[in-house]
Structure formats: structure tokens, C-alpha cells
Model the fold of this input.
Amino acid sequence: MRVVIQRVSKASVRIEGQTTGQIDRGLLVLLGIETRDEMTDVEWLAKKIVQLRIFDDRQGVMNLSVNEVDAGILVVSQFTLHAMVKKGNRPSYIRAARPEQAIPLYKAFVNCLETYTGKKVATGEFGAVMQVELINDGPVTILIDSRNKE
Done:
């Protein structure tokens, strides 16, 4: 699994003009699932995200987690995070998991985040064409890949 995490002042996702998920202060998580991913990736990544100390403490040092600042999480599926561009100019998405594999892992990931935070996690809709709006706070943007554990 691969994620792009953005610390935001606010973020929302719309499908066909309807807002399906929104948060104020928190984390926008763009999630890409690949064919090799399994539940161990889901659990490791969800725990890592919830424990990331990327919110400022009173001294202005990034030292607090999403739970410690009572912030929200918005998860948006994004298979294009697994684009391969080595050959030619048209990206290949062969490593991205097919819906029959990816949807259960996506749902499990959201459920894990909800368990670890004790809060409802906002989402888009898997496979839908979505418009995402955000105000990046910092900006703080972090990439994590469960294959590399970094």
C-alpha cells in the first residue's frame, strides 16, 4: 500500500457535485492498493498514520499525533499512486489491485483507522471520479509505502 498524507486545515471530496466526505483540521490520506497488499499492510499502515507526530505542539514542533490534537481523517482511494512510467509516456497501472481485491482492503483500512482513532473516518467512494479540495497546512506532505516500511 502506498499513501500520500497531507496535513490539512480542511479537505473535502465530491462526487457528481455532492460532498461525500469532509474534515476540518486533520489528515487527507490518498490511498493506493497494489496486487501484493494484504491485511498486514493495512494494519501496519493504519497504525503508522495514527501515530505519526506531524501536528505542532505548543512550541511549534511537530510532536503530536492526529489523536492528540483530536483531528479528522479523510481517505480517498487513488490507484494512480502505483503508476509506472519507466517505458513510454503513458503510465501503466498493472501493479494497482483490481477492485475485487482492493475494495475489501480499502474498507479494512478505513475500519482500522476508525478503531485506532475512535472516530468516524470521512471517505470518498472507491472507483468513483472524485474532486478533492484541500488547504494544505504547512505544507506537510508525507509519502509512505508499506512494502518498504518507510
Q: What stands out?
A: The longest strand covers residues 131-145. The mean pLDDT is 96. The radius of gyration is 15 Å.
